[in-house]
Amino acid sequence: MNPFHLAVITAGVTQPSSTRLLADRLTAATVAALAPREVVVEVVDVREVAHDLTNTVLTGFASPELQVRLDAITEADAVVVATPIYAASYSGLFKMLVDVLPTDALRDTPVLLGATGGTARHSLAVDHALRPLFAHLGALVAPVAVFAASEDWGSTEAGRLGERIERAGRSFAALVTGQPRAERIDPFADVTPFAAPLAGARR
């Protein structure tokens, strides 16, 4: 079986970056869920090609360094995306990368969405900004996304964030492999009838 190629777009602008950390953890969760399938991961750090993106927007020609990254995205079997949220939307640097992608580069490509922000108030940006963007590009957007606010990285919330990341990875792996959804356990499937405990109390 051929290796599964996973492109990871991370648009954090600082070093270190919580956006990069989220991208790495989403990637790790996806790779673990795809096991034992061999996965080749190619990370596209937008920060590293920021100047090349500006030049490409102005001239229409990508530098060799940027072209390698564009090819990695275009040829990937699936894509993980992580962007910081500014003013209730994705970063301008991230949008520049999307703008220079070839037409239909992401059509029918599964995409897992991740985003970071200072507060949970920005979480709706995933649904009102990121999802419409990738729907417009024709991508197969995963239904489960992850937004991580600053407080989510704290000791009390890190466990919950980890659970959300693992769930997103499992869901995304099922999407890209066409696996059926795991059977749900009905908590009310085996319930003692209401009349049973009362039967012994009758006199």
TrEMBL record:
A GO MF label: oxidoreductase activity
Protein name as it appears in the record: FMN reductase
Gene3D superfamilies in alphabetical order: 3.40.50.360
The keyword Flavoprotein is annotated on this UniProt entry: yes
Domain of life: Bacteria
Domain annotation NADPH-dependent FMN reductase-like: ranges: 6-153
NCBIfam families: LLM_duo_CE1759
Pfam families: FMN_red
Keyword Repressor listed: no
InterPro entries on file: CE1759_FMN_reduct, Flavoprotein-like_sf, FMN_Rdtase-like_dom, NAD(P)H-dep_FMN_reductase
UniProtKB keywords: Flavoprotein, FMN, Oxidoreductase
